[in-house]
Design a protein that fits this description.
The chain is of the alpha+beta class. The chain has 2 domains: 250 residues, no CATH class; 129 residues, 2-Layer Sandwich (Alpha-Beta Plaits), CATH 3.30.70. It is 30% helix and 27% strand. It is built from 13 helices and 19 strands. The strands form 3 sheets. Strands 12-13-9-8-1-2-3-7-4-19 form a 10-stranded mixed sheet, sandwiched between helices. Strands 5, 6, 15, 16, 17 and 18 form a 6-stranded antiparallel sheet that branches. Strand 1, helix 1 and strand 2 form a beta-alpha-beta unit. Helix 3 packs across helix 4 and helix 12 crosses helix 13. It is globular, with a radius of gyration of 25 Å.
Amino acid sequence: MKEMKILSPTAILGYGFPVESFEKAMALEPDVIAVDAGSTDPGPFYLGDGVSFTDRLAVKRDLTIMIKAALKAHIPLLIGSAGGSGADVHLLWCVEIVREILGDQHQAKVAVISAEVSKEKVHQALFDNQAVPLTAVPPLTHDDIENCTRIVAQMGLKPFIKALDMGADIIVAGRTYDPVAFAALAIRKGYDKGLALHLGKILECAAIAATPGSGSDCMMGCIGKDYFRVFPLNEKRRCTTLSVAAHTLYEKSDPYHLHGPDGVIDLSDCHFEQQDDRTVKITGTRFHEAEIPNVKLEGAKVVGFRTVSIAGIRDSILISQIDEVLEAVRETTKNNFAEQLTDYHLDFKVYGKNGVMGDLEPVRTITSHELGLIIDVVAKTQADANAICSFARSTMLHYGYKGRISTAGNLAFPYSPSDFKAGEVYEFCIYHLIPYEEDMFTISWSGGQS
């Protein structure tokens, strides 16, 4: 079986890549260009609000290079989780960019695969006791479903393979299981499914699996009958057994079994071999088909509005008693609004003292001569969030703590205005599995092709 080459230009569409690396990759004559365009890593806001977390100009730059190269080489371009979160609004945003690049020449057949799921379908799954929560997720309720602004399902291989069978030159797909865009063509051509999906798992983040790692550089994957190998295109980077094995475990809780919509990638007998200084060869990966295929649903709802204020603290006397002062400010704010406003969340993030991990931080002592403070308020309306943040900020600014010498103010504000109205706040309220159905992912054609 002839080796097949899969080019991953960048970890996320819009993250960029050096043209030199990309041109080296194209000189090796890849069979497909594939790119992941989305993630839940930036949180629920982008799904809930219907906007991309990547910049349009950056996405268009990347796509322009990829599309022109793919058309010139007569190879397909596959895009997963278009627009960042993969709902229809994100999908259409990405399709518009593709259309701008292609212009009026209609030189490519563009398949558009929707991943948005109707509330009715999710309600029915809940009625049928078929909505299974993922780890640490509360049981799903009908109110959760109704309150979602949009719901997506993470698609597997079938929609991609169907679109390829129908002659797609470019696939722009909604929410997608990360390895699928990279594995679909290889599996369609008969390569081992376990190896192809494992290769896709590594390629999804491009050169992050190399050392030094980068999400903004190209990676090549080559799959054969019973193996695959990976290497970066930038001479400054190299793949090692450690870097590739480590990325295999990236974002996974089980080191041997990687679950997806089509089944389980089994790494129990996987072997990583350093083939040369910059290339790693992988063998032994297996795949277990799901008896009942499931898809993961992601849904986001509005839970309030946010206002934040950012300040610095340099007074060693205040720093030494920061916990007591913040608690006093919290209590003063609560008492001040006791009869007017109680439904809010006031949080203080103190950088220099457990600002990243909070109570999970094992080192609990303050060693910094200065602290960064974020006053974070979420309330039911923007006006309520503004009021609480403003009061907490002014109270903290002038709070008379024990031993205080200065009366001019306790906080240094780097910005004016000091308070930022961040708008709507979303949370994931659906993170559940439901059974796969054939009609979940519909294919349409850009420009009216069918």
